[in-house]
């Protein structure tokens, strides 16, 4: 059944029914500083802890940047031509999203082995982390943006005191407020904080950085795709959302990634796509030692007769 009425009142009503009662976010004008792009990884980690996000400058080399720009552009045009493209961003749907990037080119597989993954993800999410989603968002002029949300909002039971995921957002062009830089509520990851109106970006800041920057932000941070008021151009970004080993992913990569892609993927990519056993989770045909990389069994044990033959 489709709901009618004021969506903002509906959100407030749902909040009142929740056992968790969030407080209003602080005024960001009171902050002495906000995170800025830097090549100092330790500073980015400090920003992530204090603000819920940080920026790694020059995360992609010019060569890596060019390769990813070209592959994403070709893929986007190809999906339009094939009639399988997905659009959103308001009534006119100017934005294009590309899903399940492991299937879309070696360039995207290679990005799963980028050094930043090892520098941030294991320390933040622990052993056995995997991807929840791996997508691209091409934000174009006219986009109305999104409502404010957290990437942990769909995980039940709600555990706002504990981060379950971490995002790596790769800027494939210069990103700023005008071309739809992600809107952010700094420090909204700490404590029980939520915006007063998820449909209003007043009081937020925006992600800004040169092409090649990586925005690192955790799953409890309130954020949204920003409205794109630029006259031309587009704002393509790639998003890798990693989660703890026990969180079910948004994309079921073990089914959606083709066997041909899995066969050529690195160990890091296979772990990211969910092919690694962690503790007693993720095994195939029963127990497998922790850390084992598994595949679909070629000869699974089926229903058998007492003599061992197939039923």
Automatic annotation (TrEMBL):
Pfam families xref list: PhyH (PF05721)
Leader peptide range in chain numbering: none
Organism encoding this protein: Lophiotrema nucula
Domain of life according to the entry: Eukaryota
Protein name as annotated: Phytanoyl-CoA dioxygenase
InterPro entries found in the cross-reference section: Fungal_Metabolite_Diox, Phytyl_CoA_dOase-like
């Amino acid at each position: 059944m489709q709901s009618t009425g004021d969506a903002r009142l509906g959100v407030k009503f749902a909040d009142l029914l929740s056992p968790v009662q969030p407080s209003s976010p602080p005024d960001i004008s009171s902050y002495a500083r906000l995170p800025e792009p830097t090549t100092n990884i330790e500073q980015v980690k400090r920003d992530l802890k204090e603000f819920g996000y940080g920026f790694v400058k020059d995360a992609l080399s010019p060569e890596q940047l060019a390769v990813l720009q070209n592959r994403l552009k070709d893929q986007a045009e190809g999906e339009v031509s094939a009639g399988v493209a997905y659009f959103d961003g308001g009534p006119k749907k100017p934005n294009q999203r590309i899903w399940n990037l492991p299937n879309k080119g070696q360039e995207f597989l290679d990005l799963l082995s980028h050094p930043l993954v090892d520098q941030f993800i294991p320390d933040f999410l622990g052993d056995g982390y995997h991807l929840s989603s791996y997508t691209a968002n091409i934000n174009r002029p006219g986009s109305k943006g999104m409502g404010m949300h957290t990437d942990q909002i769909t995980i039940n039971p709600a555990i706002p005191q504990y981060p379950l995921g971490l995002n790596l957002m790769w800027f494939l062009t210069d990103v700023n407020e005008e071309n739809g830089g992600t809107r952010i509520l700094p420090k909204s990851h700490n404590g029980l904080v939520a915006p007063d109106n998820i449909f209003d970006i007043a009081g937020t800041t925006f992600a800004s950085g040169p092409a090649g920057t990586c925005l690192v932000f955790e799953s409890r941070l309130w954020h949204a795709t920003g409205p794109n008021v630029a006259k031309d151009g587009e704002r393509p970004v790639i998003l890798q959302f990693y989660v703890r080993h026990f969180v079910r992913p948004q994309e079921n990569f073990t089914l959606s990634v083709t066997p041909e892609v899995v066969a050529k993927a690195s160990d890091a990519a296979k772990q990211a796509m969910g092919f690694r056993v962690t503790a007693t989770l993720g095994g195939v045909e029963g127990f497998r030692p922790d850390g084992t990389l598994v595949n679909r069994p070629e000869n699974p044990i089926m229903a058998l007769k007492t003599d061992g033959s197939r039923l």
